[in-house]
Structure formats: C-alpha cells, structure tokens
Amino acid sequence: MNRAAVLAFVLVVSLLAVVPWLTTDRFLLNLLILANIYTIYVLGWDFLGGLAGHSNGGHALSFGGAAYLSGLLTLAGCPAWTIPALSLFGITLVGALLGWLFRRLDGAYLLLATLAVAEVAHELSLALGFTTPEGYTIGGEGGLPVAPLLAREADWFYGCLFWISLFFLALTVLVLYWIRCSLPGLKIKALAQDAVVAQTVGLNPDRFRVATFAAGTLVGGLAGVLYAQYMGVATPSTLSLEFSFVAMTVSIAGGKGTIIGPAVLSYLLNVLLGWLWVAPVVRLLLYSSVAILAARWFFGRGREA
Amino acid sequence: MEQELQLALSGLLAGFTYALVAVGLTLVFGITRVVNLSHGAFFALGAFVTCSVVQWGGRGFLALPLVFVLSLLLGMGLERWVIRPVRRHHAVVAIVTLAVAIFMEQIFQLVWGPDYQSIPRELPLVGFMGTLVDLQQIAAALVAVVLLLVLFGLLRTRIGMAVRLVAQDPEGAALVGIDVPRVQTVVFGVACGLAAVAGNLTAFAHSIYPAMGRVPLVMALAVVIFGGLGNVHGALVAGLILGLVASGVSFYVSPEWSYITMLLVIAVGLLTRPSGLLGRVGRRD
C-alpha cells in the first residue's frame, strides 16, 4: 500500500469507528455490522479463489460450518468464552483437510467437488435434528442456538459488536493485503499462475494448497463466528449454494485477488442493498447478472485476468 | 419381494429420464469442455412451461416440442453470447453457468411464483404381476429411450462424425473444414433441449418450484462422473445404475439422503477416479 492508500484506509476505518458515538439507530448499526461480517467472508474467498487461484465452490461451508460448530459446542455445554476460538480452530482444520483431500483437483473440478461437499453440509443441516438435555428438539430449518458472549439485551450490544466486527475487518484487510505483497504471497501467486514452473524453483504445491485452504477457511470462519455471535443462531441458509455464489461474484466483480477491490465492493453493496430493502430475489438477480457481465469483462476473449 | 420389484422398476424407468439429462451434460463436456451448471435450470424450464400449458387446458405431451425448441434456442444463445467468450477459463465458465442457473431460478420465481405447483397425471397406474405400473412413467421412459436412440443414431451419421471429431480434436476438425464453434453451439443447444424434455416428461411426478432443477443437475453430474466425463455410453449405463440407487435410498432412508448420496458420488468420484468408474483414462487436453 502506498502512503495515500494507507491514509485513505485509516480515514475510512476511523470514520466508521465513530458511527456508534454519533447514532444508536439499530437499523443503521445492523446494516454496518452485517456489511463488516459479509465483507470478511468475501475476503476469505478472494484470498483462496482470487489470490491462490483455488476456485472454491463451497465457501459457505467455512461461514456456516463455523456458525454450526458454535451451535454444536453450545449444545455440548462448552463455556461461552471458549466457543469462538474452538469453532475457528475446528473450521480451520476442516479447511486444511479439504485442501489436502482435493490437492489434485483444479479449475472446474475443484469448484464442483467443494460445491458438492458444502451442499452435503447444507442438506445435513436441514435433515438432522438434535435433542437438548431439557428434551427439546432443535436443528433443521430453525437452526441451532449459539451461546453469546455479549448480552443481546444490553444497550451497548450493537455498538460493541460493530466495533468488534470492524476491528476484525480492518485486521483481515491488513493481513491479507500484507500477505499479497509479501514473499509468501508472491509464492502463492506463482503457484496459481503456473504450478509446474513454480515447482521447478522448489515450491511445494501441496503444502501451499493446504495452507491457503486453511487460511481462506479461517477468514470465512471468522465471519461465521461473528455472525453466530450476532444472531445467536446458526441457520441452514449460512451453508447455502447462493451464499457461496455471492462470495465468488463479489470477488470477481471487485477484482479477483486484489483484496481491496472486493472489500470495497462488498461493503458498498451490502450497505446499499440493505438500505434500500432490496428483496432476496432481486438481489440474486442482480448478483447473477453482475457475475455474468464481470466474467465477460474481465475474462472475455483476449483478456488474461 | 414385490416391494423390491416395484422399486427396481420405478428406479429403472426414472433412470432413463436421468440418462437423458446426463447424456446432454456429458455431450456438452465432451464437445466444449464446459461443466454446465445451468443444465438443471433447463430441466425446470421444461417443467414450468409444461405446467403452464396444462393449466391453459393443453396436454402435457403436446408441450414437448415447444419446450425442446425454446430451450434449444435459449441454450444456443447462452453458448454463443455468454459462455463462448470465457470458455478458456474453466473455473470462471463454471461460475458463469452457476450464475445463469441462479438467474433463471429468480426469473422462474418472478414469473411463476415461489410456491410449489403440480400437474395431474394423464395416464393411470395399473396393476401388473403384483406391482403397480405407472403408465405415465413408462410413456416418459419410452420417449426418453427413443430420443436416446435417435441421438446415438445421429452420432453415427456424417454429422455425428463431425461432432465426434470436434470432441476428439477441435484443431484437427477445424483443419478439415468443420465449423467448430457452430458445432459447439448446436450441441450445447441440443443438450439444453434434452434437459427441458426430461423436465417435461417428469413434470407430473415432481413438485414444480424454481429451484427444482438442482436435484436432476446433481443426479446428472453424479451420473456423468460415475460414467466418465465425456463418455456418452458410460452416462447411459451410469444413469440406469444410479437411478436404481437413488430410488432405493429414497425409499429405504429418505429422499434427502438420496440427494446427499449423489453429492457424495460427485465429491468422492472426482477425488478418487476422475475418469469415472466406467470410464477409461484417456488423453485430456
């Protein structure tokens, strides 16, 4: 990042950070909290699918998987303060395992295999029910409740969660951007562009595949944990195909692998569409149209992305 | 025993229509190297148009030519204007076809509404050797078999040879004067047409709703991967085998687990044997 970009980044984060002091409007704070969380989620795909070139068709698994792990740990009676860390650890392991399992797949095949795994998780979340120690049956469409760290009834809940999510968003942008510009980032890009050539200079594609899958899933999982803490529930929609698709679309339209582009686009889209109360059907129409046009624009004949 | 016989018959008949969807999908992959994730949306389009024709007082089977031509033209347009420009990027083209599927699902929701719809069957169920035979399902399977025979017959003609040559060696095909892009566009359109015909043939048996194309898409992908990517004959055999498996799992466990089983076939199949259980390891470009 050059000096102007750093200044712009600090200015934007500072301006956003003062919002809870200026207003306690829950609609606005809700909008901004969700924009923070969804932007972190998109950045997970941008790192894995954009920078590392591993097109993950089931990125929702990281988000929904972390949220569901929080729900399952709540069900198992774990103390609330351990749940976020354990969920993140668990989902990172899942990501590493997927990276290792699918290390021989690339392009459309990798997209298809990861999409299938996420769809299995989505279907299981809909089909399986759990019985609580009190004898209630939970799960299915209603999802799993998550033990919150912050008291939802408190006046400061929205403001506090906004700052927490903004802190993690800023941290994610900085860390991913630093990786993008660092030596490991150059190695990741080299492997994404030509794995065979990169291997000849001593890079181990399998090790990088596992590491990038774990890191991308960790970032998506961080968003999932924040979402579960905010909503107090993990629902099947967090694992849906549409949710994975939105991450891919925003990343491609924002500039695949650039980190800053998808972050800005995701934030603006989430705030704008939320502010205008755009119906889900219209949102998906918009996202799918953007995906088609952006793919044609960035990857059309004669263009190398 | 009667129950098992009933199940086997029903699974086999369903397998023929799944094979129709899967053969189209594998044909597209063989000719264009595109994994078309919008294939299921054309299945849904066929079912929705059939539903409208029946609601307007027409017969379901009469809608068959209409859904075929409509999907053929839409598919050709899709290949020409949306897929061809990005075809070189295999992952991007898969994302684009997914975008097309989601776009079509939202259009279905806006035009036909989000609710589940159904159409009455036009042929009855009859008892035969202790089993209930669904005449409508038999008619659908017969139409599917005829279409598959026509397709396999066409692949053996002079035009079919050109199509097979494009699948094997596009550069070589271009050198001998075959218009490769046109062949790819037509094959893509025909495959979309076949998926829509399958949607028409099975519309009476399913609930009709915007995302209904996902189940046949996943089933067809499982069939294509099980039978070997690009292997048309493998897709036919795998369609019949997986039709029986899906029917069995759906009956003995639940329909959701049938879907999950097919998803696992896709993931495990790609992981362990990308050339397919029935396929051979061949040259890939």
Short précis:
The complex is a heterodimer of chains A (305) and B (285). Chain A has 305 residues and is mainly alpha-helical. Chain A has helices at residues 3-17, 19-22, 26-51, 60-75, 83-101, 107-127, 157-181, 183-193, 195-200, 205-231, 241-255, 260-275, 280-299, and strands spanning 129-131, 137-139, 144-145, 233-234.
Question: Layout of helices and strands, plus pairs?
Answer:
The complex is a heterodimer of chains A (305) and B (285).
Chain A: H1 3-17, H2 19-22, H3 26-51, H4 60-75, H5 83-101, H6 107-127, E1 129-131, E2 137-139, E3 144-145, H7 157-181, H8 183-193, H9 195-200, H10 205-231, E4 233-234, H11 241-255, H12 260-275, H13 280-299
Helix pairs in contact in A: 3-7, 3-10, 3-11, 3-12, 4-5, 4-6, 4-10, 5-10, 7-8, 7-10, 11-12, 11-13
Chain B: H1 2-32, H2 39-55, H3 63-83, H4 90-112, E1 125-128, E2 131-134, H5 135-155, H6 158-168, H7 170-175, H8 180-201, H9 214-227, H10 232-252, H11 255-272
Helix pairs in contact in B: 1-5, 1-8, 1-9, 1-10, 2-3, 2-4, 2-8, 2-9, 3-8, 9-10, 9-11, 10-11
